[in-house]
């Protein structure tokens, strides 16, 4: 029969013949950055590849719709990069993705309940002198704990103790109740969408260490927030064009039959037999697939203890960046869990005002279940409290609740619950027969970043080529 191939925008539509089965060396499940990078490298190595994607688009957790008010593409998914993220920067250059240095001229705002305090970037405005000292001490203890994490975190001297408690328990042991504890507790939500009460302390510490630590991650001078792409999905679209017809969209995987010699991948768009399969998707999504035979119990239990966090993002466009008139740079944080952060995405000469607001971890739980109109009102209320009454009147508002996205189910970086990391230990990234694992959560470096996604795809491709 003939199936109208959905194509990859802006590729032209093609028609393909759909026999019962396709044969490839490798089936890659997931057309985000990790899966596309794995497929590209495997193809360059001379292997035949097919990428199957459940969505009707490529990009995974990068999503860049066009904003009529802004006059270009904006991002409702990942977008920040550091100069040290070599892989993603190569794609930015190759596919001419717009990149803007993060605007930080002026002061930031921090919300504490009904109060809004102003201060310099890199500080938590509103803390008293004693609280600032306590915050510095707590951060020092965080870095001391990070420094003790071994390259294989389960081999750390205090691995068992740290993996037996949540990060909230760890914070409570170094911070008194109050705003300092609130500032420290926001870290897993800010970077990974996880609640402090649910993520293993060992897991968080090793995730932070793999990314250079929170000071680097929040730095706008060479760190993780140095610059942001405007149209991140362009990179995935470029990789997809280069892969040509070796991508099938709207093809959710339902069943994987496997043996030591290969696998058969059943999707809603066809069935493919392959020597190897790369799962470039979260464990939450893998759990929706039926395996015959079932995965080994150790792997199944790992996936059950590897949930997604929460991440909701809004893009708000104004006629002009009015907050700059008050010497504010548009950066807003909170210690009360009301929001994770807001950022000004314009450049130094911006005529339009464009803000994004992030609700990750606890803040996401507080807005995700609101009706869309209520959620928008809450976002604008918080921006008004921080930046002024003009925030009530945007010319455009767009949002994405990633927990409601069918093929994502949450935030960009799954996290391990207490006890999982020391239990799975060295088997964390090991293949199961012909089945290999990718996605940013599988990367030993920059976990949760686009760079981590690319690195994990690279590792999976290399291991398969070495196994051939």
Secondary-structure blueprint:
Layout: E1 2-5, E2 14-17, E3 21-29, H1 33-44, E4 49-52, E5 66-67, E6 72-73, E7 80-81, H2 86-94, E8 99-101, E9 107-112, E10 115-119, H3 129-147, H4 159-163, H5 167-174, H6 179-185, H7 187-192, H8 201-210, H9 214-218, E11 227-229, H10 233-243, E12 247-248, E13 253-259, E14 262-267, E15 270-279, H11 283-286, E16 290-292, H12 297-304, E17 311-318, E18 328-334, E19 341-344, E20 353-360, H13 362-367, H14 372-387, E21 396-401, H15 420-424, E22 435-437, H16 450-467
Parallel strand pairs: 3-4, 3-15, 4-12, 9-18, 13-16, 15-22
Antiparallel strand pairs: 1-2, 5-6, 7-11, 8-11, 9-10, 13-14, 14-15, 17-20, 17-21, 19-20
Q: What fold name goes in the CATH topology slot of the largest domain?
A: FAD/NAD(P)-binding domain
Rg, please?
22 Å
- CATH class label of the largest domain: Alpha Beta
Tally the beta strands: 22
Q: Kindly estimate the percentage of residues that lie in beta strands according to DSSP.
A: 15-25%
Q: How much is the average pLDDT?
A: 93
Number of helices: 16
Shape: globular
CATH superfamily annotation of the largest domain: FAD/NAD(P)-binding domain
- When the domains are counted, the total is 3
Classify the helix fraction into a percent range.
Answer: 25-40%
**What structural class do the secondary elements suggest?**
alpha/beta
Based on the structure, what is the oligomeric state of the protein chains? single chain
Notes on the protein architecture:
This protein has 468 residues and is an alpha/beta fold. It folds into three domains: 158 residues, FAD/NAD(P)-binding domain, CATH 3.50.50.60; 135 residues, Polyamine Oxidase, Chain A, domain 2; 94 residues, Guanine Nucleotide Dissociation Inhibitor, domain 1 (Orthogonal Bundle), CATH 1.10.405.10. Helices cover 32% and strands 23% of the residues. The chain has 16 helices and 22 strands. Helix 1 packs parallel to helix 10, helix 3 runs parallel beside helix 6 and helix 3 packs across helix 8. The longest helix is centred in the N-terminal third of the chain and has 19 residues. The N terminus is likely disordered.
């Amino acid at each position: 029969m003939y199936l109208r191939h959905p194509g990859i925008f802006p590729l032209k539509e093609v028609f393909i013949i759909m026999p019962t089965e396709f044969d490839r060396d490798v089936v890659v499940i997931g057309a985000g950055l990790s899966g596309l990078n794995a497929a590209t490298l495997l193809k360059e190595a001379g292997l035949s590849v097919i990428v199957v994607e459940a969505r009707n688009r490529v990009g995974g957790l990068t999503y860049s719709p066009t904003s009529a008010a802004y006059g270009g593409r904006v991002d409702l998914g990942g977008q920040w990069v550091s100069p040290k993220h070599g892989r993603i920067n190569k794609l930015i250059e190759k596919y001419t993705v717009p990149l803007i240095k993060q605007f930080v001229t002026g002061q930031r705002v921090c919300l504490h309940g009904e109060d809004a305090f102003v201060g310099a970037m890199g500080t938590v405005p509103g803390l008293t002198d004693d609280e600032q000292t306590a915050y510095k001490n707590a951060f020092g203890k965080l870095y001391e704990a990070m420094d003790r994490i071994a390259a294989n975190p389960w081999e750390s001297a205090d691995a068992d103790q740290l993996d037996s408690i949540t990060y909230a328990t760890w914070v409570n042991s170094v911070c008194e109740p109050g705003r300092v504890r609130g500032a420290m507790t926001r870290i897993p939500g800010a970077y990974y969408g996880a609640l402090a009460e649910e993520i293993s302390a060992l897991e968080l510490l090793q995730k932070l260490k793999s990314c250079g630590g929170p000071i680097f991650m929040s730095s706008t001078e060479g760190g993780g927030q140095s610059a942001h792409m405007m149209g991140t999905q362009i990179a995935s679209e470029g990789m997809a064009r280069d892969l040509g017809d070796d991508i099938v969209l709207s093809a959710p995987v339902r069943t994987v039959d496997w043996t030591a010699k290969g696998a058969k991948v059943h999707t809603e768009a066809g069935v493919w037999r392959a020597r190897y399969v790369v799962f470039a998707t979260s464990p939450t999504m893998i759990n929706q697939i039926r395996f015959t035979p079932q995965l080994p119990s150790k792997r199944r239990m790992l996936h059950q203890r590897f949930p997604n966090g929460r991440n909701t993002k809004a893009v708000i466009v104004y006629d002009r960046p009015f907050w700059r008139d008050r010497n504010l740079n548009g950066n807003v944080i909170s210690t009360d869990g009301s929001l994770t952060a807001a950022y000004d995405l314009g450049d130094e000469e911006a005529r339009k005002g464009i803000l994004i607001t992030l609700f990750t971890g606890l803040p996401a739980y507080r807005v995700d279940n609101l009706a869309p109109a209520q959620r928008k009102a809450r976002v604008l209320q918080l921006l008004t409290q921080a930046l002024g009454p003009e925030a009530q009147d945007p010319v455009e508002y767009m949002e994405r609740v990633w927990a409601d996205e069918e093929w994502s189910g949450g935030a960009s970086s799954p996290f391990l619950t207490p006890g999982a990391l020391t239990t799975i230990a060295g088997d964390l990234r090991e293949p199961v027969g012909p089945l290999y694992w990718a996605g940013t959560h599988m990367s030993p470096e920059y976990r949760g970043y686009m760079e981590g996604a690319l690195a994990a795809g690279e590792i999976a491709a290399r291991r398969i080529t070495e196994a051939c």
